[in-house]
Structures are given as structure tokens and as C-alpha cells.
Amino acid sequence: MLYKIIHITTYNYSEFVNLDIHIVRLRSRSSSFQSLRAFSLEVTPQPAGISDVLDWEGNNTIKLWFTQPTNQLKIKITSEVETHCTNPFNYLLEPWAIQLPITDYPAPVLAHLAPYLQPIITPVIVELAQEIWQQTNGKTVNFLSQLNQRIYDNCQQTIRETGDPLPAGITWNQKLGSCRDMAIIFIEACRAVGLAARFVSGYQEGDKNQKERHLHAWPEVYLPGAGWLGYDPTQGLVVSDRHIALTASAIPRNAAPISGSFKGFGATSDMQYTLSIETIN
Q1: 227: how many CB neighbours lie within 10 A of its CB?
Q2: What does the CA dihedral 97, 191, 241, 227 come to, rounded to 10 degrees?
Q3: pLDDT digits (tens, 9 = 90+) for 147-202
Q4: Are 104 and 137 in contact (CB under 8 A)?
Q5: Cα–Cα distance for residue pair 156/35, rounded to 1 Å
Q6: Backbone CA torsion sign across 182, 184, 189, 195
Q7: Which of 5, 131, 187, 240 stands the most exposed, by the fewest C-beta atoms within 10 Å?
Q8: What is the mean pLDDT of the chain?
Q9: Rounded distance, CA 151 to CA 172, Å?
Q10: 7 Cβ partners below 8 Å, 6+ apart?
Q11: d(Cα 64, Cα 52) in Å, to the nearest integer?
Q12: What pLDDT is stored for residue 210 in this prediction?
């Protein structure tokens, strides 16, 4: 699939402010799953400097810095991305990764995965993970499929445009949350059984007849022999060629599409965005 994406984010300030450094994480990654064919960035006001940065987790980020006061910041991203993965099950697990818990990670791999294995002990999520582990006899792929489906079946999706993900226990108890909230449930449940998992920010094709589009979030899990694979518990799907990944991180805040702050005594701000995702024939 080939997609054209136009993503405009506008921050309006109640008075003129001085902008601190802003980090933009809206450049689609390139991998065997997807290729970035074209990309452009427009920023108003004109930054004093723009720097492309490859962060410690391999994400392509853009650093902006400013010297002049402003009462508005507008960031427009235009990109074309081609997705390739039509069969997300085209892999062969390492024999020692077929059964949970995985205890035979080679030392260098285990050291690299450490941030993605760090558990957050939420009793209700640990209980959920253990229940599914028992039901699937600890089979790795079956565990992931059942976890994905369980979240999809039990949690209703809501749109929450700003803010960090809610704690997994709150979302699971309320059975209601945004896509990023449900991603956290999945990540914590995976880590509870020794699977490395991370948070992904990106786009999803969605309903072509729906005018409003939103950023999307989902988890990726590291499967030895297969690599990082995405699951989407808000859709009940395994990620394939209808998702476009931007950024992935062990820490959800480090995958925020745009981060930055401003200085201005008593100043307030509001954020608006428009997003279009079109299929190119």
C-alpha cells in the first residue's frame, strides 16, 4: 500500500512566548515493513535551526530551536509511505522461544532488551497475564493472540487527544481507554511473562469513509527469530500493511509525536491538528 499523509499541528499561545527546543517524531521509519518515499517539513515561524537526530532507540527525530518570540507554532508534515507486509505471520521462532517464559536469551540480546523487559508490577495485569498463560499452555504465539483479543473484546476505545497513557490497571478496570492506554495493558502483560515489548506511535488506515483521522498507538513485542512485531488491541489485529509506524520506545513519553515547552509569564496554550491519510493508486 502507498499512502500520502498530511499532518498539521498548530499551537496557539495567549501571548507572545519564547519557545524552547522542540522534538518532532513524525518522520515515518523505514524497514522491511515500510519505506519512506517522500518527506517534507514546514515550520512557522522559521526556526533558527533544524537538526536531524537518530535517537538511542533508532528513531529518526527532528530537533527545532527558535530565537524569536511568537504567539503561534505551526508544524506541517507531508510524507509518502509504502507498506510491504501482507503476511505478518511469515516468520520462524527460535526453538527456545516457542514456550513461555523465555529463559535462554543470549547475554548480548538480553542486555539490549533490558529496557523493554522492565516490568511495572500492576497486580490486575499480572493476574491477566498469568490467566492467559495458563489458558494457552504458555505457547508464545497463542499467548499474544489471546492477549490481543482479550483486550479488544473487553475494552471500549475512546479518543483522548493529549496526555500520557493511563496506568494499565485503571484502563483494564474501567474497560475503557484510548489506543495508547490499551497498548500499555498489552506491554505490561507481555513483560509480566518475560516478553520484551515497546510502545509505538504512528498512523492506521482506518475507515476511508470517516473524515476525522487521529494518531494511533500500538505495542510491539520482540520475538526471537521474528524480531519486533506489532499487535493492535484496539483493532484486534496483528499489524501488517495498514499501519504506519513513526516512533517506538520503551518509554511511551519518548514516542510522543511532538514534545517541547515555552516560556511566557501567565501564558496559556491550546493545540489543534488536522490529519489526512490517502491511499495512492
Answers
A1: 13
A2: -40
A3: 999 999 999 999 887 778 999 999 999 999 999 999 999 999 999 999 999 999 99
A4: no
A5: 32
A6: positive
A7: 131
A8: 94
A9: 8
A10: 26, 76, 77, 78, 273, 274, 275, 276
A11: 9
A12: 66
Q: Which residue carries 493511563 as its cell?
A: 166
Amino acid occupying residue 34: Q
Amino acid occupying residue 258: I
Distance CA 269, CA 13 (A): 4
- Neighbour tally for 43: CB within 10 Å: 17
CA distance 111 to 157: 35
Q: CA-based Rg of the chain, rounded to a whole angstrom?
A: 20
User: How far apart, in whole angstroms, are the C-alpha atoms of residue 252 and residue 241?
Assistant: 23
**Ramachandran sector of residue 163 (left: φ over 0; alpha: ψ -120 to 50; beta: rest):** left
Distance of CA 137 to the CA centre of its chain: 29
Pairwise CA distance, residues 211 & 20, whole Å: 33
Q: Is the pTM higher than 0.90?
A: yes
Alpha-carbon span 60 to 167, nearest angstrom: 27
Please work out, in degrees rounded to the nearest 5, the angle formed at the alpha carbon of residue 242 by the alpha carbons of 234 and 253: 55
C-alpha cell at position 77: 508534515
Q: Dihedrals φ, ψ of 179, to 5°?
A: -60, -40
Looking at residue 208, its pLDDT comes to 64
Nearest Cα neighbor of 128 from 184, 185, 198 is 185
Q: Which residues lie closer than 8 Å to 241 by C-beta, 6 or more apart?
A: 1, 33, 83, 84, 85, 86
What grid cell was written down for 145?
A: 493472540
